[in-house]
Queue: 3 jobs
Job 1
Amino acid sequence: YEIKFIPPKVDAQGEYDINVSVIYNGKIYSYVVKNGLTYGTENVDVALIIDSSGSMVDNDPYGIRKAGAKLLVDKLDVGDAVTVVDFDSSAKVLMPLRVIYNESDKEAIKNAIDKVDSSGGTIIEGGLNEGYKQLNSSTTNNRKVAILLTDGENNNPFDYTVLDNYKNDNIPIYTIALTGSADEDLLKQIAS
């Protein structure tokens, strides 16, 4: 696997697109997240909801989902906050929502990301529930977002009611499909 993150040239505060290209078995998959990054004085609370199911042994043997999550943490600013949620057959919070004040906060968050394993089933709504609880517990006035990284085949019929809290609080969920075996239709429905 090879993932290229091409940040846009930043000339001013504002919103910018994220361009993501993945090369898998010699084929290039590209995706653009419109207004995916906001540069300026606005801080953000981010729920990193990371698939740790057993299928990740084959679908992400090099830990690209972890490397990508850590890259995001490196790009965050003082005042941003991050929670790390690991999900498989159940969900667990590896890092409760933590405000970044310095580099040691970023290192603690990245250490939590390193604890994401690869075993069990895939219950996406469990990860989304825990991510929402963490964002809802925030004491900041930051904008809130969730980022779901998964190979995306839910083991049970997906319970769409988990999305109601996100909709009611206007919290976007950005979904990232890891490999072509992901249920892209489900991930598009979650994101929309």
Job 2
Amino acid sequence: MVDPHWFDDAVFVGDSITTTLEDFCFDDPNLLGDADFVCADSLSYHNAQWDLNDENAVHPTIQGETVLAETAAEITGSSKIFILMGINDIDTYGVEDTMASMKEFIRKVLSHSPNVEIYLQSTTPMIPAKETDILNNVLIRQFDEELELYCNENGYHYLDVYHRMCDENGALRADYCVDPEDDGIHFTYDATIVWVNYLRSAVAG
């Protein structure tokens, strides 16, 4: 397990799931050191690529300035980028279109920061009560399998957060879910600590 400050030159990009991670890590360097976070609620591989001026766009902010997530490593000067998105894409665009958008997003990240080390985190599970025909754990795992293959083919790091959060049935553990009456996808503090410890162990090789 690496020291938390291994993440000092890392930036985390993602949606509200990563925002939860940011909230727990805020002012606690014992978790992920001084890592930067460039994330926004409802961010997705698709809408992250919309124009900054698009009235329907969802973009993160850095020091009060709205930015494109693809520039996160460039703006923060990070040598490592950890990305977790997808759950806001799959129900609207399906697995294949989400994969295509993810690949284009990575291409744009590298156009800004060609030497950044890429860590792609799996999309994470949801509780059964919130599954639908167009967004469920089977589709999420299908996307994750393709994401892992993509990483293996391109020399990127794949991090399987999904299986650290799921129960024996492949759903988000009930005791790890902080919003069972709402989205059914966000993590408790205990789950976030499991996530942090997994990251610190996985990057150690």
Job 3
Amino acid sequence: LREGVAWKTFVRKHAEWQVSFNEENAKPHRAYGTGIQTIGTSLERRAMNFIQNELAGFTIPVNDLVHMAPASSRKHHHVNYYQNYKGLKVLGSRLTVKMTKDYKVILFGLDVYDDINIDIEPAISTVKAIRVAEEGMVNQILSTTVSPDLFVIPVPANKKNEYHLVYEILVNTTDDLG
């Protein structure tokens, strides 16, 4: 993946950067290096300008990104996004940009997916999903709750992902000690 066009293009401009790739989505899981100056009137704008200008070769689904509240510490600003697919949250997705206090990017991560192509109509009802979730429980079930939202989950499969539509169900049980 380091030999790919996107990374080679990036390191041509920023030679001192290092990377660890997410092999399933073929994008940097974490890349870090000497600060890269950003432009913009807000943290989010600076991060988005960096994403669109410096990371364009990584085919980031920018229109699917949902901004999370920025976080700052004494030394850094963190701008994070999660991904939606056709209005459904993609579980485990995260695009992160870490900047110094003078707004230079020193780290980014691209755990987002540009190859999702699934039907967002559930194949089973919530009642059936609850039944399956409770199946095989040996201890007493105290309660079961299902999120009203559906989600998309990427499942690693031989250096790519398979995508599934899922319910989020919490089954509350007792253990052997009560």
